[in-house]
Every structure is written in C-alpha cells, then in structure tokens.
Amino acid sequence: GLNLWSPYTSWRHYWASAEKVIDGGAASGLGPYQMVHNWSRSMRGTSPLGYEPDPAMGPREEFERGALRMKARGVPMGIWMSHSGLAPGRDIDEDWFVRGVDGNWTASWGSQRSPALLFINPGHPGYIAYTKKWLKYYIELGYRWFFFDCGGWAMPPDFRPRSFMRFPGDTGLMSVRFYEEIVRSEEHTSELQ
Fold first, then answer.
1. In principle, which of 1, 93, 107, 120 could form an S-S bond with 27, CB 3.0–4.6 Å?
2. pLDDT digits (tens, 9 = 90+) for 61-99
3. Secondary structure, 3-state, 115-141
C-alpha cells in the first residue's frame, strides 16, 4: 500500500499517487503506515507536532478532499499514530508527558540531553480527549482502522503526581486504560461497525 514513508511533497502529490496505485491494482487500500499527520522529516516517520494532517504538505482542505474521494470510492484507509513520538507544542500539552524522578521529561527517542521525542502518559485524560478528537476527525473522512505504534512497550515511571495514577509505575497500566477508553468509546466504535 501507499504510505508517507515515501517523500511526497504535497497532499495533491500524495493523493494523485494513491489514486494511481489504487487504479493500477497495486493496492486495495491505504495504510497501515499511512502517515496522515504531522511528522518531522528529519525524524522520518514520527509525529512530534501532533495528529493533524501535516501542514507542510499543504492546506488541510486538500488533505480532506483526497480522503473523501477515497471514501467515496470505498477504498479502506488506516492511520498510524504514535504514543512515544510527540513533543510539546501547538495543541500538545506539556502536562501529558512522563516526568522522571528528577522532574525532567523522559525521552523516548534521542537522548536525555536532546530529546527529540518524549514519552506521553497514555492515561492522561487530556491526551485521551485529544486522541479521541482526532479519531473522530479521521473517521468522518472514511478512516476505519488505527495503528497505535509503541503503545504496548514498557513505559517508564511517571513521577509527576497524578490524580489518575496511584504510583509512578502505573504508566504501563495507563496504556491499558488508554486502549480500553478508545475501544469502548461509543462515539467511535458505533461509527466503525
């Protein structure tokens, strides 16, 4: 299938390539590694700026027009999202990130001195609400399945006091809470059935 690991320069270029691949019979759907959200071109495949369609690829309306064309054609589409590939900024709240015993953010990639990407606390209510918002957006555009990368690995302890956690080591449990919340969310699952 088609994915954004390849160097597409715009949404127009991406969707033209998608249509060519689908029309030629080389794929029957788009995904799971269809990176339709922001990602750092230097990090190749991460999403440090958020889950929105990458503004560097062009206007969001251009992305939406292409997705809706695929939806109208009945092309199955999936999306990749990352638990450990975000950084504070735009609509990403600093409070969502895991803090070490020293109070510093915990790098998921890179190093502690220059953390390019940080661990999210997946049980944070703000992060869950943010993710639901973007799931709803993509579902309305015809996306029907989602891959949460790095959501099942060992999460580091979050030493920031949290009302939704009993112990710093509960971050692994927070991954389970995240998936339960997303999967059981009636507003999303009813649309996917």
1. 1
2. 999 999 999 999 999 988 877 766 677 777 889 899 999
3. EEEECECCCCHHHHHHHHHHHHHHHHC
